[in-house]
Amino acid sequence: MDVNEVLLPGVGLRYEFTNQDGDRIGVVARRTGEFELVVYGSEDPDQGRSMLRLNREEADTLAEILGAPRIAERFADLTKEVPGLSAGQTGVRAGSPYVDRPLGHTRARSRTGASIVAIVRGEDVIASPTPDEVLRAGDVLVVIGTRSGIAGVEKIIRG
Questions:
Q1: What's the rounded mean pLDDT across residues 19-39?
Q2: Per residue in 38-49, pLDDT tens?
Q3: CB of 53 within 8 A of CB of 35?
């Protein structure tokens, strides 16, 4: 899909694309940090109807909501393309020996061959976490590897 970027002097940037129904959709990223979702009518391509205004936090939340299923789909697609590769999740419970310790202390990849590719913490997603990322009770680890590797990571985290 083509996304056009247009500088709006004194305002910010407008990103626009045409959806499958032929509607032109625009996102105005204002210099103030606010965002506006706009739909352009076919009768006047320069006249947009404001559909939604979001502050930075609201825009981040919406992006996470819209992006999370896409991330899951991409992992699912990847595992279909590579025989023997699976995606899984494991929770970090309060009793885990790794709560409040860096991810690297688990040595999960070297011990199981499976990789922790993301940490879901509440509404936040930490993609490609570093070994220094401290695990918290309630975190959900997204793991890619063989089924036995994923099970091994779960066993390690459980303690």
A1: 83
A2: 888 666 666 667
A3: yes
Asked if 134 and 101 touch (Cβ cutoff 8 Å), the reply is yes
**131-to-11, 16, 103, 105 alpha-carbon distances in Å:** 40, 38, 5, 8
Q: What's the pLDDT score for residue 71?
A: 56
Asked if 133 contacts 96 with a C-beta cutoff of 8 angstroms, the reply is no
Which structure tokens are listed for 72?
Answer: 């899951």
Q: Which amino acid is at 78?
A: L
How are strands ordered across the β-sheet holding 86-91? 86-91, 140-145, 115-121, 124-127
Class of domain 69-158: alpha beta
CA distances from 130 to 1, 41, 47, 62, 103 (A): 32, 46, 46, 25, 7
Name the strand (E) or helix (H) holding 89.
Answer: strand 86-91
State how far the Cα of 103 lies from the Cα of 107, in Å rounded to an integer. 8
* CA dist., res. 70 & res. 90, Å (int): 20
For residue 155, give every residue at least 6 positions away whose Cβ sits within 8 Å of its Cβ, in sequence order, or none.
Answer: none
Q: Is the pLDDT of residue 66 over 70?
A: no
